[in-house]
Amino acid sequence: MEEILLGKQLVPSIICGLLCFISAVYSIDLSSPKYVQKGGKFMLACEVTGLGVHLWYKDGKPIVPNSVNKFHLESDSPSYSSEKSNYFTIMRLLVDDADSIHTGEYKCNSDGRYSQHVVVVTENMIETNEDYPGVGKILTPGEPLVLQCNTSECPHCTVVWFKDGKPLHSIQDHLEIHENNSITINHASYNDSGVYVCAIDRKQLDVALNATIVVQSKIKLEKFVASSVVVDGSPLEIYCNAKAAPPPYIRWFIGEQEIFDDDKRVKLLDHDGLKRGKLLIEEANFDDRNHYTCEAYNQLDSVNTTIFIRVKDKLAALWPFLGICAEVGILCSIIFVYERRKSMNQCDEPDTDLPADNKQRDQIRTGQDVRQRK
After folding, report:
1. Cis-peptide, bond into residue 33, ω within 30° of zero
2. Among residues 298, 313, 318, 242, which one has the least CA distance to residue 273?
3. 268 CB-contact burial (10 Å; exposed 0-12 / middle 13-18 / buried 19+)
4. From CA 6, how far away is CA 19, in angstroms rounded?
5. What confidence tens digit (pLDDT) does each residue in 304-355 have?
6. Could you give the CA distance from residue 302 to residue 299 in angstroms, rounded to a whole number?
7. How confident is the model over 90-119, as pLDDT tens digits?
8. How crowded is residue 245: how many other Cβ atoms within 10 Å of its Cβ?
9. H helices, E strands: number in the chain
10. Where are the beta strands (DSSP E) in 290-345?
11. Residues 303, 210: Cα–Cα separation, whole Å
């Protein structure tokens, strides 16, 4: 009994001899399996010649349709071909809800020469190398980043890569796409973060199967100094410098109280591309003396830093200056009085305090005066 899988030369009215999966039609290629997605539909058809009972076989066992295996059988009425001088019949095997039990090798008639291997693939057939399932891959700036997609149910399938919805291509000395369905990013940076998608090449598998790897990094937060001082009535500005990929979310606390965007006095502004990265109080007062905390967080990490703000009086710097001026004035007064008294004392001193030489000269002058009077 001769049998022909669809794809052989048949009468044009006999479905053109093709193998159909879902709504698509494929030329027969017995060298590789055909894939159908779980829950989808597929149909196998072949032409058998001769009269009699013809059966479908899966993995060498006859197929008996029931509610468990969900197989459906159809066949046309036998027709006579004058060219072949024999009757021929088109047999069809249909599955409306494909599942893993439908993976196998199919033949029409056990001794048929032609068979077709069918593989039912699941939506999650692609396995990724995520560091944390459902969270993604952690990027460390400056170090290599490797992303991998394994297609165990379709070992001969290759994938195409996308980043943030755009096709990904190799970049010399930076990004390499390998044949084993992986990519390597040398010296990764924050710019390499994003949503990566590996999808089965539609030339190999006519179903849309893909997997997503979210690449992000832990947070690097610049710590605040322990404390700082602001003058009463002047602006109070605090900057939260946090880096991560993607940019982290920011929360602010004054003491134990969280600050929200609708606060009337405290404004939360964007800073350096970071949403709510700056806290601003336009006119600080003594009530603003407190601990201020910035918390940065994402799916992977949560870090915070705190600073204590002191508020001083506007004239606080004037009082020390006035004190210094008073001290200088008092010191100058003391020096002036001391010098004045010293000079007065020198004027009131007697001649006995004169040196011995001066006394002798005065005595000689006095003797001369006495002789002249005689």
Report:
1. no
2. 242
3. buried
4. 6
5. 999 999 999 876 666 677 788 888 888 888 887 877 777 777 666 555 555 5
6. 8
7. 889 999 999 989 999 998 876 667 788 888
8. 21
9. 2, 31
10. 290-297, 302-312
11. 34
